[in-house]
């Protein structure tokens, strides 16, 4: 099932919902379609609307302020788009830039996606010690970045330019 990005009335990314839920919000006049799938339409007995890819709520929803996205292994893989930070191949593991044996922590800035071969080759050394430079530096995504990164790759590529991620 395709996910639909939900924006607050102020155009801030809030969450993703299923396509069915997005259609219900639009039909109840609680949201408007900002971007639709070019080839998909939702048809019913009295309804024919484009399938929403991005919707914006009509009423502003107050959201408690979250300064940081919570760290997780899955989040690191999604942030790095499942690409190894050392060679660019498909990543299946998470590597600590400063190894845990040297005091490295589970943080956004100390972990990168890695293929199993490079993770094993680097072992408990830093990238400098192992002679394996990072292709890109790790970054800490904002909660909105984390939510956008969680979208499927084809959905992410189809988003409007003004929703593009700066750090990705």
Automatic annotation (TrEMBL):
Location of the HNH nuclease domain: 71-120
InterPro entries assigned to the protein according to its UniProt record, in alphabetical order: HNH (IPR002711), HNH_nuc (IPR003615), NA-targeting_endonuclease (IPR052892)
This protein's UniProt keywords: Endonuclease, Hydrolase, Nuclease
Keyword Ligase: no
GO molecular function, one term: endonuclease activity
Protein name, UniProt field: HNH endonuclease
């Amino acid at each position: 099932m395709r996910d639909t990005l939900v924006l607050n009335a102020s155009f801030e990314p809030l969450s993703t919902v299923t396509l069915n839920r997005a259609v219900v919000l639009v039909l109840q006049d609680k949201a408007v379609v900002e971007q639709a799938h070019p080839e998909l339409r939702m048809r019913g007995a009295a309804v024919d609307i484009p399938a929403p890819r991005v919707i914006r709520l009509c009423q502003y929803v107050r959201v408690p302020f979250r300064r940081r996205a919570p760290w997780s292994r899955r989040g690191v893989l999604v942030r790095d788009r499942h690409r190894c930070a050392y060679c660019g191949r498909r990543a299946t593991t998470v590597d600590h830039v400063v190894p845990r044996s040297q005091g490295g922590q589970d943080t956004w800035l100390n972990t990168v996606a890695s293929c199993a071969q490079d993770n094993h080759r680097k072992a408990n050394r830093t990238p400098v010690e192992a002679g394996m430079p990072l292709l890109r530096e790790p970054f800490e995504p904002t909660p909105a970045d984390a939510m956008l990164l969680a979208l499927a790759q084809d959905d992410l590529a189809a988003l409007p330019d003004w929703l593009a991620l700066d750090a990705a």
